[in-house]
């Protein structure tokens, strides 16, 4: 797994040992993406994107395959040079962070391990380069739940174990900001539940957690905030609750017409159901339906909120915008490493 935050051998950690000893940047590790654009040749992978990520919260960075998530994260981590705009962590670009090790930890791809090396040795090499004691390595293996596999060859790890090893590597320097690309990939339901608790506890310590995923469902119960992009552009940003909007409820009663009238007086919109004895009612406050019915002397036989399907909403928001599927417009692979991709800029 490509990790950052633990590969900066020269500077060493400002803190080791306990998780809660992380150092704070001036603004608490806020991530700011401002008017960010990245072109590969003629192809616009990230298109004038702006959003911010607050400390103390888990933020889901969502979009279909090819939306531009990884490119944005790589820019944020100083691995790709933007064509225009800025990406900062704690007010400065990654290159300008004086103690990157304790500021940012990241895990981008769960593939980049020396297959013959044990998980523990992989972490020890990273730790040694950065002057982190071995005790921290064992703590991290414990933290991510793979102490038993620590001495096995990483090449034999399952995808889920690789993800956990990548997380351990990202956490070695006790960073204030954690940037994870598709960390739930390859995790079984129990692993996803574990990841949820892990990320929530890190956010509760005041850390900034940015997690990408191409499936809203996968992170729905983990994240506080969402940033949804499609075709490199921002589609929606806000709290996970703000995605839901008003709820629609199916209401059965003895006299739907009279209930509709009473609801209208209370400024609540409803439409008659197809079966003649129900209403479809739109409201932010389901209790209001019961209150209105009680005042009108009408019995409620059924009140059933229609589950607002966030996944449906996600598809609707990003519908038909997957430029990597079927339309043949996906660009040719180009070298994107910062400092080497100048020729690709337009
Ligand atoms: N180095 C590169 N050279 C050319 N095109 C690239 C390069 N890196 C990314 N792209 C293209 O930019 C677009 C965005 O890719 P990116 O990996 O950022 O998307 P993503 O949202 O992370 O997708 P996924 O969920 O599939 O990982 C894609 O069409 C991709 O093919």
From TrEMBL:
Residue intervals of the ABC transporter domain: 31-256
Under Pfam families, the record lists: ABC_tran (PF00005)
Region: Disordered; residue ranges are: 1-20, 324-346
Q: Has UniProt tagged this entry with the keyword Nucleotide-binding?
A: yes
**Any keyword NADP?**
no
Q: Identify the domain of life.
A: Bacteria
Alphabetic keyword roster? ATP-binding, Nucleotide-binding, Transport
Q: Which GO terms describe its molecular function?
A: ATP binding
Protein name (database record): ABC transporter ATP-binding protein
Family named by the database record: Belongs to the ABC transporter superfamily.
State the PANTHER family in the record: ABC TRANSPORTER, ATP-BINDING PROTEIN
């Amino acid at each position: 797994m490509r990790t950052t935050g633990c590969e900066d051998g020269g500077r060493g950690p400002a803190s080791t040992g306990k998780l809660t000893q992380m150092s704070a940047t001036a603004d608490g590790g806020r991530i700011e993406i401002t008017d960010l654009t990245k072109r590969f040749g003629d192809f616009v992978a990230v298109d004038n994107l702006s959003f911010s990520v607050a400390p103390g919260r888990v933020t889901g960075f969502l979009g279909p395959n090819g939306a531009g998530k990884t490119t944005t994260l790589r820019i944020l981590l100083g691995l790709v040079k933007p064509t225009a705009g800025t990406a900062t962590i704690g007010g400065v670009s990654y290159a300008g962070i004086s103690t990157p090790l304790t500021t940012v930890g990241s895990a981008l791809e769960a593939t980049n391990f020396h297959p013959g090396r044990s998980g523990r040795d992989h972490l020890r090499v990273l730790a040694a380069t950065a002057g982190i004691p071995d005790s921290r390595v064992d703590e991290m293996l414990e933290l991510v739940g793979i102490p038993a596999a620590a001495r096995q060859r990483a090449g034999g790890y399952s995808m889920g174990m690789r993800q956990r090893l990548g997380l351990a590597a990202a956490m070695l320097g006790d960073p204030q900001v954690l940037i994870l690309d598709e960390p739930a990939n390859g995790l079984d339901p129990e692993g996803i539940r574990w990841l949820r608790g892990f990320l929530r506890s890190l956010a509760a310590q005041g850390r900034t957690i940015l997690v990408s995923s191409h499936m809203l469902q996968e992170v729905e119960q983990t994240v506080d905030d969402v940033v949804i992009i499609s075709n490199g552009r921002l589609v929606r940003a806000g709290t996970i609750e703000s995605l839901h909007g008003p709820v629609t409820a199916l209401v059965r009663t003895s006299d739907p017409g009279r209930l509709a009238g009473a609801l209208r007086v209370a400024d609540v919109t409803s439409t008659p159901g197809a079966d003649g004895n129900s209403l479809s009612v739109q409201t932010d406050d389901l209790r209001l339906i019961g209150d209105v019915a009680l005042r009108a002397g009408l019995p409620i036989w059924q009140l059933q909120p229609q589950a607002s399907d966030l996944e449906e909403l996600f598809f609707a928001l990003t519908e038909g915008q997957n430029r990597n599927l079927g339309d043949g417009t996906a660009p040719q692979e180009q070298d994107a490493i910062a400092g080497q991709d100048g020729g690709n800029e337009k």
